[in-house]
Amino acid sequence: MCLYKTLRAAAALRPGRDEIVTDSANFPSDRFLVESVAAELGHTVRWIEGGDVRPEDVAAVAGPRTAAVVLSHVDYRSAAIADLAGITRLVHDRGALTVWDLCHSVGSIPVELDAGGADFAVGCTYKFLNAGPGAPAFLYVNARHHAEFGQPITGWMGAADTFGMAEHYVPAPGIRRALSGTPPVLGMVGVQEGVALLAEAGIERVRAKAVALGRWVLALADEWLAPLGFTVASPREDARRGGHVTLRHSDAERLSRVLIEHGVLIDFRRPDGIRVGLSPLTTGFTEVRAAMDRIRELAA
To answer: The domain 203-299 is classified under which CATH number: 3.90.1150.10, 3.40.50.2000, 3.30.70.1400, 1.10.10.10?
Structure first.
């Protein structure tokens, strides 16, 4: 819902433009939603092929007809970090707006939306923000758009007078107009507590541990798993790798089922990826070593 709201808002702020840009390796929900909004508005989707999107990839596709560019800050498969500020500048130079998906970056790496000039962003709270399954999503709108953006799912919580029960909808000033109905209160409690843990730890310390955990996975993968047919799909440069590492193997789908059955809780990512999640607040180096040892044992 948050991506729908922000993408529709971005498109409405760029009337006369009829193209939306995203990449073919973006998270399925994002791609599906982009196609749905494009069909709804009569727009065309312009595709960037593959993941790990660089500014030059966006430059090759975005143009005078582009209304919005929808990208993930951290690739859900490879963990490659996109140049949020650089891509945003390029998109603005072409007169379009950005919508960033932060699901695999927020709480894992520093995210500087204001400094990077981002227009809109969405994200989840159940991963690195520690709120747990079913926790609500969130959205961001840059303050420069607060006075003019509209969103398509209007509701009483986003009205100027919440309890006025007015005959017609009048949007609230500022970001509150992005609300629709009553938020899930129990889920919000989970977010409150999960974010408090992150704030206490500090994002810089969290990021430092995520980098160290990633290095540990890469080192063990090179030593233990490469002889068994594994390769690394994630960037090896610390500055370009988010909070997980993806390993490739020709029999990854079957091996993933075996690993889960034996207590190694990874994610399979088509076509051949095994994603090792590294949530710094809850994952230790000993656990990573034990998991990698188990992967070596079962793969052998």
So the answer is: 3.90.1150.10
